Amino acid sequence: MLKRTKIQFKISVLLIVLLAVAMAMNVAWSRYSQTRQAEIEMLEKTQILNQQMHAVWNFIDINQKRIDTDANGEYNFKNIYCALVGKGVAKLFMKNTDYVIRYVSFQPRYSSAYPDSFESAALTQFGEDMESDEYYGITEFEGRDVFRYVSPILVQEGCLECHGEPAGEIDATGHAKEGLRVGEIAGASSIIMPIDIYMEGIGSNIAQQSIIFFIVLAASIAVVIFAISLLVTRPLRRMETAFERMEIDHFDTEFSDAWSSSEILDLQKKFHLMAKRLQALYDNLEDEVADRTRRLVEANEVLDEQRANLEHANALLQAESLYKSDFLAMMSHEFRTPLTSILAYADILERSDTSLSDKEQDAIDEVRENGIVLLTMVNNILEAARVDAGKLELTYEIVDMVDLIATVEGAILPLAERRNIRFATSVDPAVPLIRADWESLRRIVENLASNAVKFTQRGGEASISITNDPQSRGWIAISVSDTGIGIKEEDIPSVFEKFTQVDKSAYRRFSGSGIGLAVVKILTEAHGGTVEVISEPKQGSTFIVRIPMDRPERRNSP
């Protein structure tokens, strides 16, 4: 039942909450407004009573001389004065009512005239603000709520005889004068009015208004709930029944809710249209499913055929890559053997015959230089083929960089001298012994140094410098610099790619396979290091290789 009246229940709860809030606001406003009205009425009553009491004072003050003059016209003080008469009248008034009337002052002649806290606040206000002529409010007095009204008593001409100057002089009543002047505050009249009857009336009125307000709101809520049930809930229930029928493949939906709202009727029409379309789709669903299944089977067959073709092509590519790697390795090995023999015989020829002419010596140097270049190219191709075949393995051992640089210098220096290039090497004494693959590290430095000499014009400079890397502790930096042709900025990203050369024309000045820098990068990264290049065209280049001093797994990356 709760499920079928969910909207109705929520709206009912909402309306009940609104009823409670409206009731609370109505009670609060009624209490405030009626209390305010009662306070205005009590203020008017106390003002009238206060004026009446002041009238008594004024009457006595005006007729004071007449009262104190006997039949013979002689002054005879009869101990009847304004304060005494005012207090007497107040006592008579209080005798038959619940009112309390007091006359108070900060300098009272009687102990009963001392002000309480409320009256003290009023006297203080009158003293600070001479324009203020009343002080009132609802407060507590002797354990019950009352309305209190205080007004100032100002010194008049007739008051000076008893309360004027000089201060301290004994007046006719036997009291010392206060030394007051006309217009000053002599004290205050205080009226205390009970408010029980007002509060009872307010409570009764609020109760009656609340009952009427509750009945009206309850009736309104009942009407709203009935309207929602008739216009919304019942049509939605019929639509829910139609949905349940659609779950068991019954798409006939007819609605006859004449009392429904236009929004519900539009929704029912659209629902009916949707049911018709679903019926049409359901009628053709089996044929469409069969057709889609057939197409899916055909697509899977095509995919299987394409997958087989891709696997065959991949196998062919792998085989061709393996053939290429094997061919390059075989040819590099076959080239390296005769090249080594050529270099060896050139050395033997040079050592055995000391009577060589300059031309013969130049020829031998030319053979040696080109043989070294060609042997370096073959070694690089062999190294690249080994990497492609996944057979690159590093043998870590203790490496002294001074010895390694000396070996590279012995191979490169003859080439530099032949080209009239100043070639220098330096190893920082702070560089310690490191653990690395000696042959791979030598090939890295030799390839960079060979390129530096090859791409530097005659009379230029090339150098190798090895220091501790200032950027990362536990790393060394190998810098190879030259004053050669340099590299354009747009060509720098591709210099480490295989078979890539900056000058790709058929008439380029510098020969080479374009694989040396690729091998440098491969071997550097195999050590866990990095390589970068800084270059400007026609200004030269600097290649910086950074590698760890120990195995990659034994140190932290920079």
Overview of the structural elements:
It is built from eleven helices and eleven strands. The chain has a five-stranded mixed beta sheet with strand order 6-8-9-11-10, with helices on one face. A hairpin with a 2-residue loop joins β2 and β3 (144-154). α6 (196-247) crosses α7 (262-352) and α9 (401-418) packs parallel to α10. 56% of the residues lie in helices and 14% in strands. With 558 residues, the protein is an alpha+beta fold.
Summarize the helices and strands and which ones pair or pack.
Elements: H1 6-62, H2 64-67, H3 82-95, E1 100-104, H4 117-128, E2 135-141, E3 144-154, H5 160-163, E4 185-194, H6 196-247, H7 262-352, H8 358-388, E5 397-399, H9 401-418, E6 422-427, E7 434-436, H10 438-454, E8 461-468, E9 475-482, H11 516-526, E10 530-536, E11 540-548
Parallel strand pairs: 6-8
Antiparallel strand pairs: 1-4, 2-3, 3-4, 5-7, 8-9, 9-11, 10-11
Which terms would index this structure?
558 residues, alpha+beta, five-stranded mixed beta sheet, four-stranded antiparallel beta sheet, 11 helices, 14% strand
Topology order in helix (H) and strand (E) letters: HHHEHEEHEHHHEHEEHEEHEE
Average residue-wise pLDDT: 78
Main beta-sheet annotation: 5 strands, mixed
Shape: elongated
The whole-angstrom Rg is 59 Å
Fraction in helix: 55-70%
Q: Give the CA-CA distance, first to last residue.
A: 71 Å
Structural class: alpha+beta
Q: Please mark out the parts with pLDDT under 50 across 5 or more consecutive residues, or reply none.
A: 504-512
Number of strands: 11
Please state how the strands of the largest beta sheet are arranged side by side: 6-8-9-11-10
Oligomer: single chain
Count of discrete alpha- or pi-helical segments spanning 4 or more residues: 11
Report the sheet-strand fraction: 5-15%
